[in-house]
Each structure stands twice: as C-alpha cells, then as structure tokens.
Specification:
single chain; 268 residues; alpha/beta; Rossmann fold; 6-stranded mixed β-sheet; 4-stranded antiparallel β-sheet; 12 helices
Length: 268
C-alpha cells in the first residue's frame, strides 16, 4: 500500500528553483534513501513532506500522505499529522531540542498532544522510551536539560521523541553527521532496530552512500535540485545509469570496499 506519494514537487525561493519536479512513492513499511551532495535539495524535499520548509519557500506539486493531500496546508492542519503519524530526526540534535526544557517533558509532549496522556503518565512513558533507545539511567536522563547530555545521547532523545507516537513514517535527516564514528554506528543500528520493530516506513536522507545502502531498500539520487535516478540498492551498485550516480558508487567502493560489499544486498 502506498503511504506517501510525491508528485512534481517544486520548491522556489524567489526566482531560484531549489527542488525541481521531484516525484516518488513510498510504501508502508518500505525504506527509501535520498542521497546527494550539499545543496542537492534532499533535505528540503524531506522538510516539505513534514511541512517544515523555511519561511519564503514557494511550493508546487502534490504530497499525499495516507490518502490526504498535505501540501500547502496550514501549520494547524498539519499538527495532527506531524509528530503523530510522521516523526522526524534532525541532523543537529542540540538545535532541534528546546534548551530550556527538560528532555523528559520534550518526549512527553507528543504523547500529551496526540494521545491525550496526563503529564504523570506521559513522563513515565518518556522514561520507558529513554530506556528503549538505549540511554543509561533513564530516570536521570528525563530530568536533564539538552546541554547536560552528549551528542549521541541527544540524538537518542530526538529518536525517542520522533517514535513516541509510533508513526507510520520516520524521516531521518543526516541523523549521524554530528556524531563520532563509533556513536554513528550505534545510532544507525538503533534506528534500524526500532523501525523494524514498529514496522514504520523510513525516509533516510544522507550524503553517504554506504550508510544509505545499509539502511534502505531503494535510493533516490538528487543533484542540483533534480532527482537523477531512483533504483534499488542492488541495481544502483550493479549498474547505475546516471553519471553522477556512477561517481557516487565508485567513490563508495574506493572509500570502503568491504562495507559496500556487505551493504549491496540492502539493509539488514
């Protein structure tokens, strides 16, 4: 069943087109990677899906989520979808979290808004979610402020917030870029495990092809605002059609042959 349908998505700032006529589908429970260099339009595409484009963006096309057109809806109209049916993990967890609010309350917010839970019950659930995402001493963590936690811990908090209401779609926008290599792998494994447990669809945005190949089944390659190729992971590595896609595959093989070899079969 098609969960998300994007058709002819075009995003402009003034006269500058930053995403140009992008179309793709995502089925329930499927995993799609969106890859491209900085400025390719991949992050703006994901932000359009959740209705969080920067001020001044002019959007054309269609984005249908679970049979509901969500493009150009008001923030109020999107509030019942965002954080409830669609969760998002951002690239920089420190800026994504409220620095003046304890993280337990931030995890509890979507539960109170979308599930109608009382604060005591929501905080108890927040503690459970902290444990679920592998945070040590969750009772202490929920009482902490973001600046008191490490980058890896903050990203786990972001994941707990995004998955609190069991969304049918999780969007992860460069979720490990700000983390060191060891923590990156831990967070990727955690996303993999939790998405599999919940049966959520995953839109994974990254500039790193080996990581995308490990996390997803299909890959959309973007360059200069245009989607130049859309293929399964195995087809992309076995015979990418577009010159830019071929360059990405060559670079991935040269940087980490063993990782790519393991990843060619898709996510585990």
């Amino acid at each position: 069943m098609t969960l998300l349908q994007v058709r002819n998505l075009t995003i402009r700032f003034g006269r500058k087109v930053v995403v140009d006529d992008v179309s793709f589908d995502l089925d329930a429970g499927e995993r799609l990677g969106i890859i491209g260099e900085s400025g390719s339009g991949k992050t703006l595409t994901s932000l359009a899906v959740i209705g969080l484009l920067p001020e001044g963006a002019v959007v054309d096309g269609s984005i249908v989520f679970d049979n509901v057109e969500i493009l150009n809806r008001s923030d109020g109209q999107l509030s019942s979808i965002r954080g409830n049916h669609i969760g998002m993990v951002f690239q920089e967890p420190l800026t994504a979290l409220n620095p003046l609010m304890r993280v337990g309350k931030q995890i509890a917010q979507p539960l109170r808004i979308h599930r109608g839970m009382r604060m005591k019950a929501a905080l108890a659930r927040a503690t459970e979610l902290c444990e679920r995402v592998g945070l040590p001493d969750p009772e202490r963590i929920v009482r902490s402020y973001p600046h008191q936690l490490s980058g890896g811990q903050r990203q786990r908090i972001g994941l707990a917030i995004a998955l609190a209401c069991d969304p049918s779609l999780l969007i992860a926008d460069e979720p490990t870029t700000a983390l060191d290599v060891t923590v990156q792998q831990e967070v990727l494994n955690l996303i993999n495990e939790l998405v599999r447990e919940q049966g959520s669809a995953l839109m994974f945005v990254s500039h790193d092809l080996p990581v995308v190949s490990m996390m997803t089944e299909r890959v959309a390659v973007m360059r200069s605002g245009t989607m130049v190729e859309l293929a399964t992971v195995s087809k992309l590595f076995g015979g990418a059609r577009h010159e830019y896609s071929q360059m990405l595959v060559r670079a991935a093989r040269q940087s980490d042959d063993e990782f790519v070899r393991i990843s060619e079969g898709g996510h585990r």
